[in-house]
Automatic annotation (TrEMBL):
Signal peptide: none
Native source species: Hirundo rustica rustica
Example GO BP: viral process
Transmembrane parts of this sequence: none
SUPFAM superfamilies noted in UniProt: Retrovirus capsid dimerization domain-like, Retrovirus capsid protein, N-terminal core domain
Short name of any one Pfam family annotated for the protein: Gag_p24
Name of the protein in its database record: Uncharacterized protein
Length: 132
């Protein structure tokens, strides 16, 4: 998806919210914003030097897709999209837990964030009545 389409900041955020868990999204956004801050620093002295993090990260008042599509230069949109993709690829995948939430244990090499996602999914599944 990232290689095929031109994605404005709004699109990047939307895709992240649909494919990542809530906790993964928080981590993704932190990584993405750090990458965007590096982009801003790299634009220093050039034609994109006036861009702000709010403009690149879909923050108000720059969170209107129509304006993003017309106001951001194509090379900036490509940079934003690349930063979003790299941030997504840094997020650990989530494994769907089996059994009840009390049986979920953190693996020896499992990142804490993945463990939290497994535990959250197990609780949600059990509370929805699918396992209970």
């Amino acid at each position: 998806m990232f290689e095929v389409y031109d994605l404005i900041p709004y699109d990047c955020k939307y895709i992240a919210t649909t494919i990542l868990t809530d906790f993964q999204y928080i981590l993704w956004e932190v990584k993405w914003r750090r990458a965007l801050e590096r982009l801003i620093a790299s634009y220093d002295g050039g034609q994109n030097a006036a861009l702000t993090l709010a403009q690149l990260a879909d923050d108000p008042p720059h969170n209107r897709p129509k304006h993003q599509a017309t106001d951001l230069l194509q090379n900036v949109v490509a940079d934003i999209k690349e930063a979003a993709q790299k941030a997504i690829l840094q997020i650990q995948p989530t494994v769907i837990p089996e059994g009840t939430f009390t049986e979920v244990k953190q693996g020896a090499s499992e990142p804490f964030t993945s463990f939290i996602d497994h535990l959250t999914q197990a609780v949600e599944e059990q509370c929805s009545g699918e396992v209970a």
